[in-house]
Design goal:
single chain; alpha+beta; two-stranded antiparallel ribbon; 4 helices; 10 strands
């Protein structure tokens, strides 16, 4: 992350962050999971029946892997980013500045936290919000990211 911030500063890129709400609930389960239903949830007539869990839950070990794979597919195919060879949570996209020089826009992903580095990072955040629900008030010009203070 530090190198990414240094690259953003050297290239004059702005930084914006967001947090995807209920990220794991966007993903279908990779494994079959069921629970035994109690009468307190669905009534006595459904007691001891099995209910299949179809969406990934935070408590499942496979949920993080399923979310990461689905979000990576979306970043790659819908937004056109390419993963960095050395860190699969750093994504790059070649772009051209208004006056013609080339640069790379970056996305850094940590589970459901996304840090966008671009000339206008809020455009990327807006396109992410078209696919996923962003937590209320989590879009911010980042001065803190995963407990790290960021200053220009």
């Amino acid at each position: 992350m530090r190198i990414g911030l240094l690259i953003a500063a050297l290239n004059g890129l702005e930084i914006s962050a967001c947090d995807i709400g209920n990220a794991y609930l966007n993903v279908p389960n990779r494994i079959k999971v069921y629970v035994i239903v109690g009468e307190e949830r669905f009534g006595a007539q459904h007691e001891v029946k099995r209910a299949v869990i179809v969406k990934a839950l935070y408590i499942l070990k496979s949920a993080r892997v399923a979310w990461r794979a689905m979000f990576a597919h979306c970043i790659k195919h819908d937004f056109g980013y390419t993963p960095c060879i050395s860190d699969q949570d750093v994504w790059m996209k070649p772009k051209i500045r208004p006056y013609g020089s080339k640069y790379n826009a970056y996305l850094i992903v940590y589970v459901d936290d996304v840090l966008s580095k671009d000339i206008n990072p809020n455009e990327t955040i807006a396109s992410i919000s078209n696919h996923f629900r962003i937590k209320e008030g989590s879009i911010r010009s980042s001065n803190i990211y995963i407990r790290a203070n960021i200053k220009k």
